[in-house]
Write the structure tokens for this entry.
Amino acid sequence: MHQTLINRRTLGVTFSPEGACVRVWAPFAQSVCLRLHQQQQTIHLQSDGTYWQTSTQQLQPGDTYTFILNDTLDRPDPASLSQPEGVHGPSQAIDTSEFNWTDADWKNLPLDDYLLYELHTGTFTPDGTFAGIESRLDYLIELGINAIEIMPVAQFPGTRNWGYDGVCPYAVQNSYGGAIGLQQLVDACHRKGLAVVLDVVYNHMGPEGNYFADYGPYFTNRYQTPWGHALNFDDDYSDSVRRYFIENVLMWFRDFHIDALRIDAAHAIHDAREVHLLREIKEYVDELIRQMGRQHYLIIESDQNETKFIQALAQQGYGMDAQWNDEFHHALRVTATGEQKGYYADYNGVQHLAKSYKDAYVYDGTYMPRRARIVGKSTAGHAGRQFVVFSQNHDHIGNRMLGERPAQLVSLAMQKLMAGAVMSSPYLPMLFMGEEWGELNPFLYFVSHTDPNLIEAVRQGRRREFAAFQGVAEAPDAQDERTFGKSKLNWELRDQEPHATLFRYYQTLLALRKQSSLRHPDRESVAVVVDETKQTIMLLRQHKQVDWVAT
Amino acid sequence: MHQTLINRRTLGVTFSPEGACVRVWAPFAQSVCLRLHQQQQTIHLQSDGTYWQTSTQQLQPGDTYTFILNDTLDRPDPASLSQPEGVHGPSQAIDTSEFNWTDADWKNLPLDDYLLYELHTGTFTPDGTFAGIESRLDYLIELGINAIEIMPVAQFPGTRNWGYDGVCPYAVQNSYGGAIGLQQLVDACHRKGLAVVLDVVYNHMGPEGNYFADYGPYFTNRYQTPWGHALNFDDDYSDSVRRYFIENVLMWFRDFHIDALRIDAAHAIHDAREVHLLREIKEYVDELIRQMGRQHYLIIESDQNETKFIQALAQQGYGMDAQWNDEFHHALRVTATGEQKGYYADYNGVQHLAKSYKDAYVYDGTYMPRRARIVGKSTAGHAGRQFVVFSQNHDHIGNRMLGERPAQLVSLAMQKLMAGAVMSSPYLPMLFMGEEWGELNPFLYFVSHTDPNLIEAVRQGRRREFAAFQGVAEAPDAQDERTFGKSKLNWELRDQEPHATLFRYYQTLLALRKQSSLRHPDRESVAVVVDETKQTIMLLRQHKQVDWVAT
């Protein structure tokens, strides 16, 4: 373990009383220069193995800069913290230590207590910024959740994107409010008793503004992801790529006070090395926790139902604290709607929902027809807090052609039942923004690329994906600003009936969750009775008696 | 674990008193027919999930057949045991139980005692067949080895190939003598006290004659190997692909009495499922051993220095019995020749050789410059018998443009030193055919494809690979029959000096290995003293005193 990594970033620009320290990985470069845009000056970096570095008094926080590779390519910093002019523009130096934190009293919540609320910064509020989120924190507290989960904020092309096309894992989207805006939001959350979970993407990087190949072998041809080249975590030169992402994890926790990361599509982080990247990340995070005395969690998204991800380090697992459990969603959704298209085809409704209440995974060593293979492993021995459940999220809404939320598809009574099903589960519940008042605007897939070829490729890809719907309806144009506009929450709806009633129902449910035995995600005590004729489930939850023993 | 898999093949054609049972996996087929070539008859197979099957009295051992998919494609059986007309021709039914084994008294050697001899069937003897090998078994016994390791014999295009372009993993190359020829060779080896190791390829299949995609998703786009599409061991439908290779392993052990498999390039068997294919194979092999009462070993080739492969199942490893240790070779080779090109660049000679004597891997958690990353893990706790070492093998000779053997490159004295270095190691020694008399013919890369595009691709690939040598010499044409011819052993050389002397030296070394403490591959007792000035190593080996304790 590199001790230096724990205390501070080593990549990109960092500041100390002696000035700016600049460091970039470019193993094949013949020369690397730092170009200071305000000063109209270039400084040669010194080679240090496969890294290049310099120290300078010239570069000050707020200044913009680029790197010039081999005297020809003028490129943003791969570890840029700010891209004030977007992904193609220069990087901006940021001193993350300048922020005056006021959250010294904040203590991360026990994972058991997390009540999550997933939101997308750009569409959560009319102005689509971190400041916008901050203005709604009192509302979220009134609702009763205690943790917000922010969809990815790494700089992406343009101003409209779910966040999974990010190309600057260290830079906070400028149109959201940038790095300082995020620090301010986290600080405000902590003052109000809310934890902050950040969604990060470590399995691929977006296509536009992706200058990584100019710097080094960040990608490998050994693997493919559905979204493009896989990151190079196990091929030649992979140590430095691993280090790049490990430093990224540590930065969010240490310099942004993020409480937990939600790691996107962990099953697509291909790594055949003896120590998997996720395991190595966990080792570093444990050391950070030890040194800093603050708790942080690692939560993954995975579609593999393989417990190696959430197995403890001591049991040779990757040590992730928790994972999203999509199968609970699928089983619940099929129970509620009878839907059988696409990935819902493998779920039969109440029987599978009952199984998910008991065993978390529906497929846990059993044959899954759509994959035509045995999927999953038993979750025996894994605590309820290791599974995040929901009746909707950005994916299961937004991957529908018309992006309909459940409120557009099912009755109010069914919305209430679905909310109750989630909140009474022995797992960590998560809401998706707006579900608490039955938002009727869709959550569509949207982008704002500038590369015309890419825009056309996205359009065609969406059309292909939804070819079966042709004739019924047209796939909305992801590039069209109106598609983004339509996906914004309509806050006025919340005060209208029946939405106001639904909101109070969610408030009551959340209060019940917190004040009853439900708040303990104990899997041992769960009993489920299925009535197949009536298609109903009776769920029994209790919490073990706590006996105080004088010691 | 499918119990049925242990006792008999379920795929392809098997015979019982009731007739032939025919079974093939074709999950997307609308219909599958068995076409009997002699009988000029077709029989419809019945669908059984993703498999198709029938039983028939029509098909007799020796008959040829194909499968007709969707009434259009006429294809050989993916689990064919015999391809009498080559990879593009019909399959031939073989009843492996018809062979009259005479090796009931044979007991596999303890792995500790293995003294291996790698050979290529086509070039080992003038006629290039299993019968040819059989005619030299007395010679091999006279030499003093006790196990032959046969390069892959799965049917490949044409008659000349190293074996790594095989496309019928169940069919034994017809020009070598086919399935019955292999059974006869193994039986003869066992009668003479020789074990048989078979090289098998489970990471890819060759390009020509590869009809697998017509049957089902045998391949995945998720991964790439340097040799083509990766086999589908973890994607949708992968259970059946895994089963196909598990049955293959069991067949070699059970029906061909093979003593050990050498699994090619195990690091390229990409499998992210919780139970890695190799681990699942080991579980089945353990069950086979338990039921059949015969010992079998699994030996892998791997370039990753990761002990998870050879870690016991109980320690969450893949349970492989042993692995090739290329790094011992590289360190020895650099010590002997000072070579520094290509993969030799990472090895410094005596220091690394000393490290390999002590620690097996040279890089065991240390930075490898050519890969620009930390490579490997400590082998502490792993027995010497888990590492196969050699001063040459088919790869390190044949991947040179001119295929020169060490005898063409180093002095007789150095050849002797290299042999001694291998034989005195605390690992399992392996010779490559002909090294024992200092063969002077090269071992070149050769193929006999029939697809003109493929032939041209191979030619251009070889030229590219050796572009740096252009001007110095021309890369031999792999497709040219003379390239194959030149690679055959020249047995007459063995009776000439200094070759006859070298042969006696190898005899003496092998005898010494067997009769001294050297025969125990104990790593604990190894002491190595390096003299950097003289560039020499002193190796001390001893075997622990065995104390008999009355209990």
